[in-house]
Each structure stands twice: as C-alpha cells, then as structure tokens.
Amino acid sequence: MALADRIGRFDLPGKVAPLENWHITFRFLGSVGEVAYERVLAELDSVDLGRSFQIGLGELGAFPQPRKATVIWMGLSKGAERLHELAEISEEAAQAAGLAPNERPFRPHLTLSRVRPAQDVSRLVEGAPAMDIEWRCESVVIYRSHLGRGGASYEPLETLLLSR
C-alpha cells in the first residue's frame, strides 16, 4: 500500500498500528447486546448511505496536540464532508437503537500510532509532507474490536455498500 510505504520512511514513536487495522471510525458502539446491534443494523439498512466517493489522505496530525501526543494520525484532504455525513447517519442509527449520544465530535482520521506516555511530536508533524494518496470508498464495514495483549484486532461483521 502506498501509504504504508511512505509512512515507513518516518520514525513513528509508540505502537504503530498494523496495516490490517487501519480504518476510519464513524461511531464506536462499545459493548452492546445482540438486540441493540440488530437495531443499529436495521436503522442503517433503512437509510440511503449515498454514493461512493473519493477519499484523499493529507497531512500528519496528533491528538490531543503535537506537543503532548498520545495518537499520531493521518488527516484527510478529500472526502471529509461525505465522511461527516456517514458519521451522522451512524450516530442517528445508534441513538435510534437506544444507545447514548456520542460525547466526542467526529474528526475523520486514520490512526497510525498510539504513544504512551505522551511525547512531543511537533517536528515530525510539521516536517512530514502531505501524502496526496486517494482511493474510492465504496462500502462501510461494521467491525467488532477484540482487545488483547498484542493490541486490538478487528473482525468484520457487516459490509454496507454505497451506491455507484
């Protein structure tokens, strides 16, 4: 993958997320029962998710800020508006299924590394060139996360296709 090749040139601190774990999270459901999960899925099945679209990766960033980074991420240069729409649809489906509102605002990004303890990555973030990598987003996947000693792994549960 082009991004993995380019990211490999940087010395990212912390625990770098494996390529197979890269994803953009719209809404974290947490530990939900089968009934709540089926309600969320039914809500998502009942709405038009819209057309497929281009996603473009842009610049490195860090949460909560580069001087005290605990997460290093890749931002988006294209497709953020559609991702916000899909995140809103996901949030509405979760709430309609009875889940509490998400407390955090949606910030579309691709998590690359988790840093513990926090570090100053200002130079890395400021010195990294924009990636300018694009691909077509044609589906939304619902994953179950499994936490373990080796970090998280993700199991795909459902794939929802976007229209062409």
* Total DSSP E strands: 7
Shape verdict: globular
**Tell me about the biggest sheet?**
5 strands, antiparallel
Kindly state the percentage of residues in helix: 25-40%
Description of the structure:
The protein is 25% helix and 36% strand. It has 164 residues and is α+β, with helices and mostly antiparallel strands. The protein has one domain (2-161): Alpha-Beta Complex (Cyclic Phosphodiesterase, Chain: A), CATH 3.90.1140. The strands form two sheets. It has a five-stranded antiparallel sheet. A two-stranded antiparallel sheet has the order 6-7. Strand 6 (139-148) and strand 7 form a beta hairpin. Helix 2 (34-45) packs across helix 3 (80-96). The two termini are 24 Å apart.
Task: List the keywords.
164 residues, alpha+beta, Cyclic Phosphodiesterase, Chain: A, five-stranded antiparallel sheet, two-stranded antiparallel sheet, globular
Question: Short summary of the structure?
Answer:
The chain has four helices and seven strands.
Question: Secondary structure elements and their pairing?
Answer:
Elements (H helix, E strand, L loop, with lengths): L1 H6 L7 E2 L17 H12 L7 E11 L5 E10 L1 H17 L13 E10 L2 H6 L5 E5 L1 E10 L2 E11 L3
Antiparallel strand pairs: 1-4, 2-3, 2-5, 3-4, 6-7
